[in-house]
Fold:
Amino acid sequence: MKPITNSWAEPYKMKMVELIKMTTPAQRKKALKEAGYNTFLLKSEDVYIDLLTDSGTSAMSDRQWAGMMLGDEAYAGSKNYYHLEDVVKEIYGYKYLIPTHQGRGAENILSKILIKKGDIVPGNMYFTTTRLHQELAGGRFEDVVIDEAHDPENEFPFKGNVDLIKLDKLVKKYGASKIPYVSIATSVNMAGGQPISMQNLKDLRAFTKKYNIRIIHDMTRVAENAYFIQQKEKGFSNKSVREIVKEICSYTDGATMSAKKDALVNIGGFMTTNEWEVFEEARNMVVVYEGLHTYGGLAGRDMEAMAIGISESVDDDHIRARVGQVIYLGEKMINYGIPIVKPIGGHGIFVDAKKFLPHLSQDDFPAQTLAAEIYLDSGVRTMERGIVSAGRKPNGDNYYPKLELVRFTIPRRVYTQAHMDVIAESTLRVYGRREKIKGLKMVYEPKYLRFFQARFAKI
Structure:
């Protein structure tokens, strides 16, 4: 008799369900054509399982919904702001808080304050909105992530690490005065949700102190990163996710946060800093771009839900089940022979479109094509993370990223294990007919962040 294994299960039960629409192949074909073969332009009512993003798509808890009823909607000095401020200090350790409507609002304010024309902003792989705000402020992003991050098959456990040799070369080339901060993401999205190690953060902190350079933390998925440190890095197995999160933040000088991910809310974000002068400037600018410094574009109820969600996000049982569901789907994909980014990341599965559709060139938009084909097969909505997302350089040329990926992003506390089975089986069916799939051509391109609104046609 084989030994009994311990299965994992979600640490919650359901009190409410939302019915989702089942569509026919003909309906999906029509909807996709009308959307210009861009899954961002599909109507949500035409989607069966929505893996477009984990941003703002999580299910809130009963405690969060109860907190919504405690919203203090005063224009100034809402008690929910002060509760949120206390939670941010307690969980993350940062001194000063500026709420914003979402993460990119925080990126905008931070970039305008810290970046001047001609500055260089090194980081562990770009993110779309982050890099755009840095460029609009006059800076230029430089990738200093380790080379392993650009190799989907490399199974190094901390592919979000900074290559300190690359960073040192930048400092020597441009001078420390030209580098306002190093931009560090925990759970690097564009690399496939890959974590940065605590040791690498410590080494980075020591390096930046020598040159008096800040570290600014994109902490959107910091709890997921902390979980991987707990599971994979020596010396952390007996520490809680909550303890690890606070230590991560202690090696940085400030942060931007899209609370729509880790913090389990449908809208909201914030900027934090440990520097009074930066806080004072941000407190002035938020009034121009977002709202008063004690609400920053959010209702009181949203801030209350966020404060509660932050506390829930660092619960070990929660994060174990959250990442566990992603790993379950990833292992099914691997067992089916589908090429994905390894090791499996924290917030989704990233399918390697170059290997899935090797007969298509990058100019044929293989990841965009694959996302469209998966929707046609089953109504599962995914998204492109490749040449379309990378966009254009300031001179107008396309960026050609090494990674051409389709992101299967798993919302928190929303779908079941059965949904994961359906997703994997649909991807397998498309894989079986991959040689017959033709690419796409772009027929409309917006000025900024083209992956949101671009339209395509079949070649």
User: Anything to note?
Assistant: The radius of gyration is 21 Å. The first helix runs from residue 25 to 34. The chain has a mean pLDDT of 96. The chain has 16 helices and 14 strands.
